[in-house]
C-alpha cells in the first residue's frame, strides 16, 4: 500500500521557484550523445553516432563546456527494480514541491547557517549496501561514499517535475548519482548565461546517471513536466562536500555522518 503524508515544511533542497514566465523564450534543444559525450547536431532518432558528422562539442556550438555526465544502462535488473519499489511503497511518501513525493535518508541540514546534525538519520537503507558497492566499481565513482539518499516519485497525473536548480555545493560534493527507476525520462541542463539553450540527457529505466564536472558546477539541471510519461522514481545519492572530507576542517563531523550512513540500517526520515 502506498501512503502519503502531508509535510508542512518547505523542502529546502530546491530553490524557491521563480514566478511563472508569461512569455518563455523558445529553447534550442541539444541531446547529449551517450556514445561520444558530445551534443547531437543531427536529429537523434536512430541515427548512430559517427563522431563529427552527428555530434559536436558544446564549445563549437557556442556554449560553455558541458562535461562530466556518465550514463550506465541496466544498472539494476528488472527484478531488483521491483524489489526496490516494493520496499519503498511499504514506507510512507511525503509530499514535496512541484507534485513530487519524497523519502529522505540523511542528516538534518541547515543550508543557510551551514549547520548539519544527525537528527533522525538512521543510515542509508539496507538495499543500498549492494548498490553502493556496484557504484564504486564504476571508474568515475571509485571512491564515492554517499552520505544521503533521496527518493523522488514523479507521476504525470500530478504534473510532477523539478525546476532548474543547482544542488548545494557546500554540504554536497561534486558527484550526484541517480538511479532512474520505472520509466524513461530526460534530465535537462541549462547554463545560467545561455538560457536559450538546453541540453538533455536521456535516462532509460534502470539506468544510473552520474553528474560531475562542469555539468554539475556550471550548468543547472531540471526534470520537466513533459519528460514524465509514467510513474518514475529517482534514487539520488550524494557525497559530502570539500569541507567534510579527510584532512578538511569538518572532517570529524563528516566521518561521523558517514559511519551512520554506512550502517545500512536506515528508514526514511519522519
Ligand atoms: O529527479 C531527478 O533525476 C533529479 C532530482 C534532483 O535534481 C534533485 O533532487 O536535486
Ligand atoms: Fe538536483
From TrEMBL:
One of its GO terms (molecular function) is demethylase activity. InterPro entries: AlkB-like_sf, ALKBH4, Oxoglu/Fe-dep_dioxygenase_dom. Residues 1-22 are annotated as: Disordered. It comes from the Eukaryota. Residues 146-241 form the Fe2OG dioxygenase domain. Residues 1-16 have a biased composition (Basic and acidic residues). PROSITE patterns: FE2OG_OXY (PS51471). Keywords: Iron, Metal-binding, Oxidoreductase. GO terms for biological process: demethylation. Gene3D superfamilies: Alpha-ketoglutarate-dependent dioxygenase AlkB-like (2.60.120.590). Belongs to the iron/ascorbate-dependent oxidoreductase family. This is Fe2OG dioxygenase domain-containing protein. It comes from Salpingoeca rosetta (strain ATCC 50818 / BSB-021).
